[in-house]
Amino acid sequence: MAEAIGVTASLLGIATFAFQTSKEVYNLVNSIQKAPKTIRDLKSELLALDPVLSSIHKAVMSDLSKFEDIRYPLYQCGMYKGKTIDGYKGQLASYKATIALVLDLFTLTTSTLTAEVVDEIKRKVYDTVSQTEPDLEVHIEEITEGLDNLAVKASAISHDQHTLPDGDSSLQVLARQERALEEDRLALEAEKKAIEQSQQACIIARKWLAEAAPQLDSRSIHVNFSGANNSGFQVGQNTGVISNSR
């Protein structure tokens, strides 16, 4: 498998990690003979993810600054350990949609497009946001519940540690449990951050839709993506075709 990296690695490194890992997991599930439906569904999700990760990898190489805000969703595409098959498949579906959404909006800032193509992207963005936002809401509720449960367990371990005398053999067991809980907490925090970044991408997309919709009947619009710390997409009148603001 691709060598694991941290979420603080370079964005290009994360994109490469996610791309390579997804390919390796696909090759693994593809090798299973007479696979059950859950495996076949995961295989389909990985197959659909491949071109999205390939595109984002190329886009990141061309302009890193535009994609910092999906660092965590991109990273989570390569994280499968400790997850059920259905859980991993659902995770991939949400993050794939987020990455594809950002790619569509990035296309508006880096390409010369006809009004018809812009209208097609608009419909695609609307469908993606409408389908993805409810899943993200459910997912973040599950993550929040998981973090709350870990906090309760950590509190119980801390209580036990303070009630046992020094040198008690049970302290070593509790210490291992404490480390395992901390690893689980960090993993859930990273996943929560990925969901929050995905939700923010949907908010930006909805803002763009709201501002762009009145102008889509005209010959063209101008879209300006303001970068990693953006507050949204700037939309204004243009003439001719869609082009970037550089």
Task: Report on this structure.
With 246 residues, the protein is mainly alpha-helical. Helix content is 69%, strand content 4%. It has six helices and two strands. The protein has helices at residues 11-30, 37-62, 71-76, 85-110, 115-163, 170-212, and strands at residues 221-225, 233-237. β1 (221-225) and β2 form a beta hairpin. α2 packs parallel to α4 (85-110), α4 (85-110) runs parallel beside α6 and α5 (115-163) packs antiparallel against α6 (170-212). The longest helix is centred in the middle third of the chain and has 49 residues, at 115-163. Mean pLDDT is 81; it is low at 216-246.
Shape: elongated
- Sheet with the most strands: spatial strand order: 1-2
Helical content (DSSP H or I, runs of 4+): 55-70%
- Secondary-structure element order, as H and E? HHHHHHEE
Structural class: mainly alpha
Summarize the structure.
The protein is mainly alpha-helical. The protein has 6 helices and 2 strands.
